[in-house]
Specification:
This protein is of the alpha/beta class. It is built from eleven helices and 21 strands. The protein has a domain of 227 residues: FAD/NAD(P)-binding domain. The strands form four sheets. Strands 1, 2, 10, 11, 12, 13, 20 and 21 form an eight-stranded mixed β-sheet that branches. An eight-stranded mixed β-sheet has the order 7-8-6-15-16-17-14-19, sandwiched between helices. The longest helix is centred in the middle third of the chain and has 18 residues. The two termini are 32 Å apart.
């Protein structure tokens, strides 16, 4: 089978890249060992976060680091035995979180993520997926005045500098909107611009169906079989070998497995996360996405029930599940939302967020292979940035002017790799 481009990875990023290339007349084959949207893109909190102009930093306050070191929190957990293997990634993540280095990161990142809703909106309309989308933003809840005031100050900065709207509420005001929630919170921050997704995996499936209507094709296959053939590439699939002049690596947390085999040495890490669905109560149902900021988990009213998502777990990508954070979060969630129903699944879902040391994705042409392109490392914002990444990379691959500056995401920014 011949194609112009093979896209490896059928998560939100790879599927969006494939759609944008097909819209530009390219013949595209999308390849994944599983179906579209069945891995990391399935398990997230289902938000399109235009307010996420400030990437998540590594704590630099000594007192906060000591609290995390106790390993008894809900928002972060780590495997002690994993620390030697991930120390290099953690150190460079910490180093880039210093204010003097973080500021340039934000200046490159913010203009990109501000397009996230608009770029999703185009694909949502083309895919006919409007029924999966809510447009009421989401809420951050604060248990202490200190955390509330810090967040309010940061939100004012984001509004002044980047134009992202919000409103500040009391716990009682949110309780009037969501009667099932406790009103015993010190304050609430409502980000009004983001959109929510009631089934993130289904949205990726809808984008994949759009790809096929545009003439593209999805095939099950093993991305790790990729080999260079002449000036192009070949990969093994369930329908035989597929050859193409160009290939895109959009493998999320598995990208490093392939790029290292091709000779690239990026320092990549993962933040693992868990979720569980709970029965939505018949009375005083939860209708809004809410984040218990001081405890570090989120409740998301989705089609399968209320999805509870956890914070970050630092551990080897494929290590056995240790859903300690989920157990801790459920206790707090039942304090915040007493009517939370029973668990829907027998076991928690686990996924891995693919992370770079400077909190920005890697998007662009591979340094030593002119027909190889990268689109991975989106950390917490893969679902948010999928369509924007698809547009940016497709513009680069077809020689169009890019709608944002691509330099902050260049694969060459780390020097020799």
């Amino acid at each position: 089978m011949q194609a112009d481009v093979i896209v490896l990875g059928a998560g939100i990023v790879g599927t969006s890249v494939a759609v944008h290339l097909a819209q530009r007349g390219k013949s595209v084959v999308l390849v994944d060992r599983r179906g579209p949207g069945e891995e990391t893109s399935y398990g997230n909190a289902g938000l399109i976060q235009i307010e996420g102009v400030l990437p998540y930093t590594f704590p630099r306050d000594f007192g906060k680091l000591l609290r995390y070191a106790r390993n008894d929190r809900t928002d972060m957990h780590y495997h002690p035995t994993a620390l030697p293997g991930i120390a290099g990634f953690l150190y460079r993540y910490w180093w880039n979180s210093a204010p003097e280095r973080y500021r340039p990161i934000v200046e490159g990142y913010a203009p990109f993520i501000l397009h996230a809703v608009d770029e999703h909106a185009k694909l949502i309309e083309a895919a006919g997926a409007q029924s999966l989308i809510g447009k009421n933003g989401w809420y951050r809840l604060f248990r202490t005045a200190q955390s509330r005031d810090e967040a309010f100050r940061e939100a004012e900065q984001v509004r002044a500098e980047w134009g992202v709207a919000h409103e500040q509420l009391t716990g009682a005001e949110l309780h009037r909107r969501e009667p099932g929630l406790s009103e015993k919170f010190a304050g609430v921050l409502h980000w009004t611009g983001p959109w929510s997704i009631t089934d993130p995996g289904a949205l990726v499936v809808a984008y994949s169906a759009l790809l096929e209507r545009l003439g593209g094709k999805f095939i099950h296959g093993d991305a790790q079989t990729l080999e260079q053939k002449g000036r192009g590439w070949v990969v093994d699939t369930a329908e035989g070998k597929v050859e193409a002049a160009e290939v895109v690596v959009a493998l999320g947390p598995w990208a490093g497995d392939l790029t290292s085999r091709l000779g690239y040495r990026y320092v990549l890490g993962v933040k693992r996360g868990y979720h569980m669905h709970y029965v939505q109560p018949q009375s005083q149902a939860l209708t809004s996405w809410v984040h218990d900021t001081d405890r570090g988990y989120m409740l998301c009213p989705m089609d399968r029930g209320i999805r509870l998502t956890t914070g970050a777990e630092f551990a080897p990508r494929d290590a056995d599940s240790t859903p300690i954070q989920l157990e801790r979060a459920e206790v707090s969630a039942r304090e915040m939302f007493p009517n939370l129903g029973a668990r829907v699944e027998a076991e928690p879902w686990r996924g891995a967020r693919p992370c770079t040391v400077d909190m920005k994705p890697i998007i662009g042409q591979a340094p030593r292979h002119k027909s190889l392109w990268f689109a991975f490392g989106h950390a917490h914002h893969g679902m948010t940035l999928g369509p924007a990444t698809g547009r940016l990379l497709a513009e680069m691959m077809t020689g169009e002017p890019t709608f944002v500056d691509a330099k902050p995401f260049a694969p060459t920014r780390f020097g020799a790799v």
